[in-house]
Specification:
- The structure is a single chain.
- The protein has 153 residues and is of the alpha+beta class.
- The chain has one domain.
- The protein has a 3-stranded antiparallel β-sheet with strand order 1-2-3, with helices on one face. Strands 4-5-6 form a 3-stranded antiparallel β-sheet, with no helix packed on it.
- Helix 2 packs across helix 3.
Length: 153
């Protein structure tokens, strides 16, 4: 499997959508031995020319191939559902639901991490004044401005 590559963030021509980037992170969280990889067009050897492959890194063997048109939640559901090959329709639906929840939780965690970074910036800001939620604060986080009622501080 020497023709499989991980996307290069420095290469403009190997752009991967944020949804598939998120899928790559979730696949790693689901099973540390699985890895989503991207195959450049010139290295695709299959007839279907699918650009994505999930590889078991222990054996370097492909688990599933996917195209840009495949829904990442369905790809993850196939991976989860593939743990038991003779699954029922109900187990496949449960796998898809679990995949959707994993995406929602990961997006929520990313938003919370961004909010924590913004809060840390506000706390650590060396500026003389900072604007936050439409209010202006001085370097000691006291509200400033003409409309401030000082007796309620």
């Amino acid at each position: 499997m020497s023709n499989i590559f991980i996307p290069n963030t420095n290469d403009v021509n190997s752009w991967v959508s944020s949804k598939f980037e998120l899928l790559a992170e979730i696949v790693q969280d689901y099973d540390r031995w699985l890895e989503l990889r991207w195959i450049p067009p010139e290295n695709r050897t299959r007839d279907d020319k699918k650009p994505y492959v999930v590889v078991d890194t222990r054996t370097n063997y492909p688990v599933i191939y996917a195209s840009e048109l495949d829904v990442p939640e369905q790809i993850l559901a196939q991976i989860i559902g593939g743990d038991n090959k003779n699954g029922t329709v109900l187990s496949k639906l449960e796998a898809f639901e679990a995949a959707q929840k994993l995406f929602q939780m990961r997006e929520f965690l990313d938003k919370m991490e961004q909010a924590a970074d913004e809060a840390k910036f506000m706390i650590d800001s060396p500026l003389n004044t900072v604007r936050f939620n439409g209010k202006k604060f001085d370097d000691q986080r006291r509200p400033v401005g003409p409309a401030i009622d000082r007796k309620h501080l």
